[in-house]
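Sample intake sheet
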Amino acid sequence: MDNFMDNRWILRGIALLVTLLLFMSVNLVPQSSSSNIIDLPMMNKKELLRDIPVTPIYDQENLIVNGIPKTVSVQLDGPNSIVKTAEMKRDFEVYIDLTSYALGTYEVPLKVRNLSEKIKATIKPRTVTVTIKEKVEKVVSIKAVYINENKIKHGYKAEDAIIKPNEIKIVGSAEEVAQVSYARVDIDVSDANQTFSQVLPVKLYNKKGTQLTISSVPKNVEVTVPIVSQSAYFPIEIIENGTLQDGLKLKSMITNTDEVKVYASEDWLNNFSGPIQVPVDLSSFDKSGTYEITVPTPDGAFKVDPSTVEVVVELAEETEQKFSDIPIQFTGENDNFTYKILKPTSGKVTVSARGFDEDLNAIDPKDIIITAKVSGLEAGTHEVTLSISAPRGVIYRLNYDTVTVEITDKNTAESDKDTEIVGQSSN
């Protein structure tokens, strides 16, 4: 027995036998999806993968193809580890190649690529029926249709909707595109009392008014619905308020807006006859030009449009004109006195007139009368205030407000003269 155990070949044989037994025991264990036993590459596996996208290959710029499914199912059959890798990565591709087909209807096989050669792929369905047609494009305007328009809040109405974009493109075969007669969006305006916006789907219809299932680009558009009060047009009347600044005169004030749109209830509109008075504050003007004036909203109305109007204002500015050498005249003289102006020595003054051109140009220097009232003054030298009488409408200013007047008593002057004569005779 000891000799038996000491034999090296016998021990090597026993070790080989044990190894074979262990290998066989592992491969004979039933495969379970829930077990943690390591898969062996020698075993095959079948796996059905769903929702695999189909890649179409054809001239998509000029052709349109009907009948290509978006996704298919693919059954993979092959070595366990390779199938599992393909299932996890899904980096293979199912495609349909129509590049060699003319216009018409065909039964075309689906194919797979980028898949290991060790895997057998079965596509379900294996073939599809497709129809190849020439692609046609058509641009159609969109119209808005109001639903429940009679249910808008009392006193309001919906004006024309603003659609962005207001056209859509239809892409399809010539037969499909030819069916489209018009496109529209349906807008529910129930209980609306203010402007609102929505994104709505575009619907396509044929000439009979039947809705079509053809799609458009874009499928949805943005609509804005102006909700306004009922309205009517009324004239406006410019009303002058306030006073112009000194030195300014209003020559004209006009507006190119004769009427405005007033939003109000139907009863109010029926009872209001206008005009709408637009007050203009003259004190706010400092020069000629165009001014924006607010149009007041009448009591009981909702709003006016436009809310402002432009008023073209033409103003005249005062200028100054001088009239020289206007003689000073005396009033209230006493026949017993003589009167002489000592200052100004010329006995004349310069008159400055400030006013508007049309008034200044109408003045004749002969119409300007300057007087010095000397009534009641005794002999001697006096400062006398000057007075002016001249055409109205302008402001006058004199270069002298007073004059120096020398008053001499004639009797005294004669007596002095006689005395002088007598004195000369005695010599």
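Comment: The CA atoms of residues 19 and 70 lie 53 Å apart. The helical segments are 2-6, 8-27, 80-89, 174-179, 266-271, 357-360, 410-426.
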